[in-house]
Amino acid sequence: MRLLSSSLWAALSLTALLAGCRGQESDQPPVHLNPNMDSQPRYDSQAESKFFEDRRTMRFPVEGTVAKGNFLENDVYATGKDGDQYVAKMPVPITESMLKRGQQQYNIYCTPCHDATGSGMGLVVTRGGYPQATNLNEAYSRTMPDGQIYGAIAYGIRNMPSYAAQIPVEDRWAVVAYVRALQFSQNASIQDVPADKRGGMPVEAAK
C-alpha cells in the first residue's frame, strides 16, 4: 500500500512538473525568487518627480563637478577665453595633422550650413530655407579672434547650436585652424605666393 501511495505521489509530482514545462506562452510575469535589485522603480526621461521641489526627474550635475576624463587645467584651452575675453590666437601650435583633422570635422559638421568654401550658403540654406549662415570669408569673420570661433563651436551662436557634444576640445581647435586656412585660401593674392613658385601659375592668376 505504501509503495502504491509513493508511486502515486511521484506520478502526480511528475505530471505537475511536466505541466509547468508545457511550453505555452503566458502573460503572467515569471516567478523571480531572488530579485537581487534587478527590478527597481525608475523615472522616465522628462517625467515628473514628486520628490524634488522643482518637479524635475532629470537633474543638473552638482555645480562645480566635472565628468571623469573631462577635466582640463588650462582654462584658455578649454574655453577659448582668457578671463572674459576671447583669445586672439590659438593656444596650441598648428600642425599638418591638425589641419587634416580640422578639415575632416569641418566637412562633417560645418559644410551643411557654411558650405565647403565657407560662404555660408550650404545645403541647409539653399535647400532647407534657413537664413544664410555666417560667411567665414568676409572681413568680419577673418578679423574675429580665434577664441571666438572656438566659442561658436563650443557654445553656439544665434541659429547655430552648440557642437560641444559632437566635437571634443582638441577637434574644436583643429576646426579653428582649418577655418583660418580656408579663409586664407579664399582671400589669397599673387603676393601670398612665393616668388619662385609663381612661374608655374596660369597668367590669369598671376595678374
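That was protein one. Protein two is written in the same sequence-then-structure order:
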Amino acid sequence: MIENTPDIILNHVSKVYANGTVALEDVNLVIQQSEFVSLVGASGCGKSTVLRIIAGLGTPSSGNVELNLKERKLSFVFQDAALMPWANVSENVYLPLKLAGVPKKDALVQIKQAIARVGLEGFENNYPRQLSGGMKMRVSIARALVQKPDILLMDEPFGALDEITRSNLNTELLDLWHQHHWTVVFVTHNIYEAVYLSNRVLVMGNSPGHIVADINIDTPYPRSESFRTSTEYNKYCRSINEYLRVK
C-alpha cells in the first residue's frame, strides 16, 4: 500500500511565536503516501502546531514544508466537530463544496456518498442538537471526506468522546482508511489509540516541541480487538510511555 513518493516532508521546521515562545524546534519528518502516522505527546508539546503547519493554517519560523498536492487534496478534521447548529447534516457536509462554489445540485452525489461512508444514512435531515457526540464527529469526518481527500489531517477528533464510542470510531476510521488509502496524520494524547491505529507513532517532547522517537508499529491490518489485548500491543504502549517520560 505504501508508495515511494512522500506526501509530506518537514525540513528543519521551527516555530517561534511573537511573544518569544518556541513551540517547535528543528522538526524533521517524512510521511509516505497511504501511511497512517500518529503524533503523541503531552499538552503543549506542539502536536497541533505541526498539524496546522502541514495544513497551511500556520507558517514555520524557519525550515520548510513540502506537500505532494499535485492532483491530490487535503482535508482537516478538528478536535471540535464545529457543526453549524442551524444546518442539518446534509448542509453541514455540503459546506466545503459550497465554499468552493459547487452548486448544491451538482454536489448531491458527493454529499450522499460522504454521509454513507460514515454510517449516517437516514440522518441527512437531522440537526446537530439531535445527534450524539459520536454522530456529530461522524458528520465532521463526512464534511472532510466530501472533497474526496488524499491526505487527511485529524487533530484529536475523538478526544471528547466516551471510551466505547471512541473505540468504535477508531475501528470505523481504520476501515475507511483501508478502503481509500488516505495518508493520515492523527494527533492524540492517547497512546493506546495511537498504537491501535498507526503504521508509525511519533513521540513528541516539549520545551520546545521536538520529535524524540519514531516507532514503527509492525502489526498487519486489519487489526481487531485481539490486538488490543495482545502482548505485542502492550509492549508498544509501554515503549511509547517510556519515551514520553524521558521527553
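Residues 6-246 form a domain with the Rossmann fold fold (CATH 3.40.50.300). Keep this in mind for the problem set.
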